[in-house]
């Protein structure tokens, strides 16, 4: 196979999957690891992919911002691992049920909280802010002690969530009891969390800054996946919630360490 054909096949595979590990590339192309690394270096230098831990991710261009090709429209992501996401949301709800001020991100995992929030008669009000138009639409229909609001921003070109300087600035002088957010991937052993765009990094870091406690809500299918943009470390979160349950940051770290020894 010609070098150009091999690299084109490699790029097509990355773009179709959204990401590709070095090991998978070796099997796909039936070439050595050294050859794979050389080809990926070339594609990275051409701005066609971005190298991450253990492989590469596909990139799309929007002005000066690069975002992961897995940043699909909301509707396309909603049915992926649906039952696991619903289980995550149920565990999260147990942590936030008595909160007065909530900040919720625009992920499809967090979206499923709408099935629980505002369903019980409450004498107090829960004020909930989000950058997700679909989640806001669902919450605005609730009648029992729930007030919903959208923060500022402009719709992301791919996902539709509200991002940008207006989104960050609209959080000024506001303090939340909890922020609940999800991510694109997690490397548990490294304690690293990844999202799909630089817009998300800035916004979600602001979310955490303006909240007393932070919850990372993520199903385990995202474990072992990295991404184009590192959000931060798991240690920044008070809780990590998966379909298996809710864990304090210390409990999650201990569990990860235990599993790595098996």
Write the layout of secondary structure elements.
Layout: H1 3-17, E1 19-21, H2 22-29, H3 33-45, E2 49-52, E3 55-62, E4 65-68, H4 74-78, H5 82-96, E5 101-104, H6 108-111, E6 126-130, H7 133-139, E7 146-150, E8 154-155, E9 162-163, H8 165-169, E10 176-181, E11 185-187, E12 192-195, H9 198-209, E13 211-217, E14 229-233, E15 239-242, E16 245-248, H10 249-260
Features:
single chain, 262 residues, alpha/beta, Arc Repressor Mutant, subunit A, Rossmann fold, 2 domains, 7-stranded mixed sheet, 4-stranded antiparallel sheet, 10 helices, 37% helix, globular
| Relative helix content | 25-40%
Strand order of the largest sheet: 7-6-5-10-13-15-16
Element pattern in H and E? HEHHEEEHHEHEHEEEHEEEHEEEEH
Uncertain segments: none
Report, as a whole number of angstroms, the end-to-end distance. Answer: 40 Å
Radius of gyration computed on alpha carbons = 20 Å
On the 0-100 scale, what is the average pLDDT? 88
- Beta-sheet strand percentage? 25-35%
Largest sheet, strands/sense/barrel: 7 strands, mixed
Helix/strand/pairing category: alpha/beta
Task: Tell the overall outline.
Answer: globular
Write the CATH fold name of the largest domain.
Rossmann fold
- Regarding quaternary structure, how should these chains be classified? single chain
> Number of folding domains?
2
| CATH class designation of the largest domain | Alpha Beta
Task: Find the count of extended strands (DSSP E, 2+ residues).
Answer: 16
CATH architecture of the largest domain: 3-Layer(aba) Sandwich
How many H/I helices? Answer: 10
């Amino acid at each position: 196979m010609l070098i150009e054909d091999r690299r084109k096949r490699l790029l097509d595979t990355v773009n179709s999957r959204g990401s590709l590990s070095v090991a998978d590339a070796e099997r796909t192309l039936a070439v050595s690891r050294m050859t794979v690394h050389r080809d990926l270096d070339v594609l990275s230098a051409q701005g066609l992919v971005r190298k991450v831990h253990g492989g590469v991710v596909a990139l799309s261009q929007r002005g000066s911002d690069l975002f992961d090709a897995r940043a699909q429209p909301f509707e396309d992501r909603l049915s992926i691992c649906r039952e696991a996401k619903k289980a995550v949301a149920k565990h999260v709800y147990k942590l936030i049920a008595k909160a007065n001020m909530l900040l919720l991100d625009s992920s499809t995992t967090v979206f499923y909280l709408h099935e629980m929030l505002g369903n019980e008669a409450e004498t107090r009000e829960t004020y909930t802010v989000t950058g997700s138009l679909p989640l806001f639409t669902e919450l605005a229909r609730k009648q029992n002690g729930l007030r919903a609001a959208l923060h500022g921003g402009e719709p992301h070109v791919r996902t539709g969530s509200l991002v940008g300087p207006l989104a960050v600035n609209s959080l000024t002088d506001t303090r939340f009891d909890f922020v609940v957010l999800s991510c694109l991937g997690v490397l548990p052993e490294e304690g690293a969390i990844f999202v799909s765009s630089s817009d998300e990094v800035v916004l979600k870091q602001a979310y955490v800054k303006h909240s007393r406690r932070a919850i990372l809500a993520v199903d385990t299918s995202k474990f072992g996946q990295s991404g184009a943009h590192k959000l931060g470390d798991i240690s920044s979160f008070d809780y990590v919630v998966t379909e298996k349950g809710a864990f304090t940051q210390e409990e999650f770290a201990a569990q990860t360490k235990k599993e790595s020894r098996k």
